Amino acid sequence: MLDLHSHTTASDGVLRPSGLVRAARQAGVRTLAVTDHDTLSGLAEARRAGAELGVEILDGVEISTVDARKTSIHVLGYLFDPSSPALTEVLSRAQGGREARNLAIAARLNSLGMPIDLARVRALAEGTVGRPHFARVMVSEGYVASMEDAFDLWLGDGKPAYVPEGALTPRDAVDALRAAGGVAVLAHPLSNGRSPDHALAELRRAAKDGFDGAEVYYRSHTPGEVKMLASFAAQNGLIGTGGSDTHVLPWTHAPALPATTLERLRAKAARARTSAP
Ligand SMILES: [Zn+2]
Ligand SMILES: [Zn+2]
């Protein structure tokens, strides 16, 4: 089984890269892309564990961007050269944006009567700090009953403590991935309650921005949504990809991806590389 979306403690997952690969293997995943937010720091350990356990590991990343409408757009990258200066630069800009964002979230929570010690939030994160780390501290402080409540009431997109992500545009991320020889995929186009119309508009913009694919086979997508997104993607010349977006266990599989997905992404990356100036 192929899974092109997962997170480790290098960003906001709860499993170390080696633990994630072990869990993937137990869940029947034979090819796994590790796609931490704005960092490649979990990849080396994941590759080592993959070699030991017989799981093929693909280098991946999920870059945080914001489009002209101030909508958060996550850009998944695959098949890139991890030492590419263009990619390194964009990731360090994304990280800088995240740090400013975390300070802003803490300030927002404070003004809402939920003072949070940012050091405690940071202590929970081994790598990139994100909203799930804030949510865990909010639960332990008794401000909310659960992680879900923390997002539904306060931290989720459009909620009172929501702060939009960094300064990168989707185009910045696509260009950097392309320069690094990789491909760019629009993550979870139906997330945060986006309507089918909204998702279709996003796929159209993604195609214009040079994306290669879009997540069709995502964990939370119903069979009807998969069918709809697969046709939107095909209409716009985008490869339908997907994955579980695993952050915690149990592993919840995404609907099965077509076996040719990876081949198609590889062919696209190879074509882009040979036509590059
Ligand atoms: Zn995402
Ligand atoms: Zn993700």
Explain this structure.
The chain has ten helices and seven strands. The protein has a domain at 2-87 and 181-275: Metal-dependent hydrolases (TIM Barrel, Alpha-Beta Barrel). It is globular and about 55 Å long. The protein has helices at residues 17-26, 43-53, 85-111, 118-124, 131-140, 147-155, 170-179, 196-208, 223-235, 261-275; strands at 2-3, 31-34, 56-66, 72-78, 183-186, 213-218, 239-243. By secondary structure, the chain is of the alpha/beta class. Helix 9 (223-235) links the parallel strand 6 and strand 7. One zinc ion binds next to loops.
Question: How would you briefly describe this protein structure?
Answer:
By secondary structure, this protein is of the alpha/beta class. Helix content is 45%, strand content 14%. The chain has a seven-stranded mixed beta sheet with strand order 1-2-3-4-5-6-7.
